[in-house]
Amino acid sequence: MSQPTQAQLNLAALAGSGSPSPRTMRTLRKIQSHQILSSNPSVFSGQTSHLSTARSSANAEELSQQAHLDSPVRLRTHRRARSNSDAGSGERPILQTQKRSGRKTGSGFGIKRSVLETLLRDGPQNGDVEDALKELRYLVLSTRVEADGDGMSTYRVYLWLTLLDIPPLPTDEYLSLIHRGRSPAYTKIRNDTFRTLATDPLFKRRVTEASLIRLLNAIAWKIHDAKAKKRPKSRLSTSRRREMELLINTPPSIAEEEPTDDNANLLTATPSSDAITSESAIYVQGMNVLCAPFLYVARSEVEAFSLFHYFITRECPGYIRGAMDGVHRGLRLVDRCLEIVEPKLSAYLFSKGMQAELYAFPSVLTLCACTPPLPEVLHLWDFLFAYGPHLNILCIVAQLIRMRDTILDSPSPNKILRSFPPLDAKEIIALTVLIVRKIPDALYAELIDHAK
């Protein structure tokens, strides 16, 4: 019998430690995901031979070659129904379409559900939630969420809410934040929102700038309130302190009426995170892009708000704290993981002075949402939410490995790395699963905690 790994010993210690905290349980689930990804020899149907061959090879170049699958991505556009968000009253421009076999999604009368959708809708048959979640994650890994050419699925948003364990949020609570008016970060938000996925017609047709502004402004108020609770009490009176905050944080042109006491305790359905501190920023550049896929997938702004707020306060609070220290830790981990998995490529990039800080910052901060096409981003996020957003670091390494030959043949790799090639989520996920097996347990633990 093989000796248990350090990660397995950590699991046993965590499991026997009494009543672990919610953060401990999230870490436990992520380590379990690491074990699953590292131990399952074949997780992709029809690719068993590819994966087994690649795993038996110690050469990173062969690993890269084995991960290239015969499924090129084709960008597809077609007509679709209007969004639920506040689209304009004018007619949409009709894009030129290409005929293809239509694939219905959803579970209407006469439409067969997939195994993934059936499990998500019906729940565990034997009442075992933990086993059902394991099966749900495995189905996300082994099958693709059914979606149309635009990446829209009738159940993807519920899959994300389930995988991230996010409770329902009353609409009135979200509206209360909106009715508070402009937050101290409003000007920064307005300077970014019009650029959000500006060249992506799918996003522009479904999500309006107004909805993006509302959601980010509500998030800013929510983080503002959490920061205020963490801030040490001053000898100044409450009214005087609020007056000074407005003078410091809010430009005179957008100053609003002070929030009332009724607005001070909002969103009780989503408890504030201990990770939000006085050093956390209520808005940083790039949050608009990270927020975009949530708004695109969700069927309402309330759902998108719940997902996005949970994500930045529980999964990656380090990305919005201080000088975005979590993002910078992630960038250093990209360099370290690449050095282990593909030492030749890593050495070449370092010889050209190309650390991840120079080319991978947007990919780390936005979980690759900055790289089109959007439907592939959604597929990649299905995987990340199932097995842990920390795996985004390895997904970036996978993209670099797929670009390996092009980078090594170029005397100026900085030109190539200015923009990554279009995402192919299937290939990136397959290669990421292989890379996980090469990452030492101690380094993997740093991946899990880098954004905290």
From TrEMBL:
Region (Disordered): 38-109
UniProt GO cellular component terms: mitotic spindle pole body
Pfam family of the protein (one): RabGAP-TBC
Domain (Rab-GAP TBC) ranges: 150-388
UniProt signal peptide: none
Biased composition regions of type Polar residues, renumbered to the chain: 38-68
PANTHER family: MITOTIC CHECK POINT PROTEIN BUB2, TBC1 DOMAIN FAMILY MEMBER GTPASE-ACTIVATING PROTEIN
Protein name: Rab-GAP TBC domain-containing protein
